[in-house]
Design goal:
Helix content is 13%, strand content 53%. It has four helices and 13 strands. It has helices at residues 3-13, 132-135, 141-155, 214-217, and strands spanning 25-35, 38-49, 53-62, 73-83, 86-98, 101-110, 113-120, 160-165, 170-183, 193-206, 221-229, 236-245, 249-259. Helix 1 packs parallel to helix 3.
C-alpha cells in the first residue's frame, strides 16, 4: 500500500478515537485487512484522550503475500489540545517506509499553523511545494479524525469537511453519513451488529509529486467506515472499513482486538 493509499487508510483507522468530554480514556485497537480473501495488512492504533488534550498513534504494515508486492510500513502520532470544542494539534510525527526508502516528517504548530521541523527527503526534490498561506489553519490527518469522532459523539452523524496537511500534501477530507447498517458476524472480526456507515473521500489539493507520480497523487481516494460502540453506552469506534489496496483491489478492514 503506497503513501497515497496509506493516508486515507490512516484516516479510517483514526476514526477509532472515542471522544471523552468528561473523563480521560486510553485504549488500543487492532485491525487486519483482507483482499481477495487473504490477509494483506495489519494495524494497531493507540489513543489517550483527556477533556482538554489528546494523543493518537497509528502503526501499519503489510503482511503475508502482500509483502511480495508492497512492503510499506507506517508509524504516525499526534498530540494536541481541545479549544472551543475543536482539536488543535501541537505536534505531528510521521515515519513511512515506501519501496525500501524511509520518509520522515515532523510538524510543529504555532497559533494553529503548521511548520516543518524535520523532513527527509525534502519536498523540493520530488513534489510541488504547498505555500505557507495554504497550510494555515489545517489539521494533520489524525487530528482531523479526532474532530470527526467529536462530531459523531455529539450528533450521531459523521458529516465533516476538513483541509489536512501532513508535511507533504494538502488534501480535503470529506465524510458523509449514510445511516445505520447491519454488520454480519464474521470469523475475522470481534464485532457484529449495527454500525453507523460513513463514506469518505480524500481530495488532493496541492503538493503533488512531479513527473510520473503526479497522476497517481491527483487521484481522489474513496472508502467507507462503520462506527459502533463495543459495549452498551460506550463511544462509537471503527468496527469495519473498506479501502482500496494497490495491486490487490478492494480490501476490507476488520476489528480484531480492543484493549483498554
Amino acid at each position: 500500500m503506497k503513501v497515497a493509499v496509506l493516508i486515507p487508510l490512516c484516516l479510517l483507522l483514526y476514526l477509532a478515537v472515542p471522544i471523552a468530554p468528561r473523563a480521560a480514556q486510553a485504549a488500543q485497537l487492532s485491525f487486519e485487512l483482507y483482499a481477495l480473501g487473504i490477509p494483506v495488512a495489519e494495524s494497531s492504533m493507540t489513543f489517550d484522550l483527556a477533556p482538554s488534550t489528546y494523543r493518537m498513534g497509528l502503526r501499519y504494515q503489510a503482511i503475508g503475500v502482500a509483502r511480495l508486492f508492497d512492503s510499506d510500513r507506517l508509524d504516525q502520532s499526534t498530540d494536541g489540545t481541545f479549544e472551543h470544542d475543536q482539536p488543535v494539534p501541537l505536534e505531528f510525527k510521521s515515519f513511512i517506509r515506501l519501496h525500501s526508502q524511509e520518509r520522515i516528517v515532523t510538524l510543529e504548530y504555532r497559533n494553529g499553523n503548521p511548520t516543518i521541523a524535520a523532513i527527509d527527503p525534502p519536498n523540493e526534490t520530488e513534489r510541488e511545494i504547498v505555500p505557507a498561506p495554504r497550510r494555515e489553519h489545517t489539521l494533520d490527518p489524525l487530528s482531523a479524525m479526532v474532530d470527526m469522532l467529536h462530531v459523531a459523539a455529539r450528533t450521531g452523524r459523521c458529516d465533516l469537511s476538513q483541509p489536512t496537511y501532513d508535511g507533504r500534501r494538502l488534501e480535503l477530507f470529506t465524510a458523509t453519513t449514510k445511516g445505520e447498517e447491519d454488520i454480519p458476524p464474521s470469523g475475522r472480526s470481534i464485532f457484529a451488529g449495527r454500525g453507523l456507515r460513513c463514506d469518505y473521500t480524500s481530495q488532493p489539493v496541492a503538493g503533488l509529486r512531479l513527473g510520473d507520480g503526479h497522476d497517481d497523487d491527483a487521484r481522489v481516494r474513496k472508502g467507507t467506515i462503520w462506527l459502533a460502540p463495543l459495549v452498551p453506552g460506550g463511544p462509537r469506534l471503527p468496527v469495519q472499513g473498506v479501502v482500496d489496496v494497490r495491486f490487490l483491489g478492494t480490501a476490507t478492514m476488520y476489528l480484531t482486538a480492543a484493549v483498554p
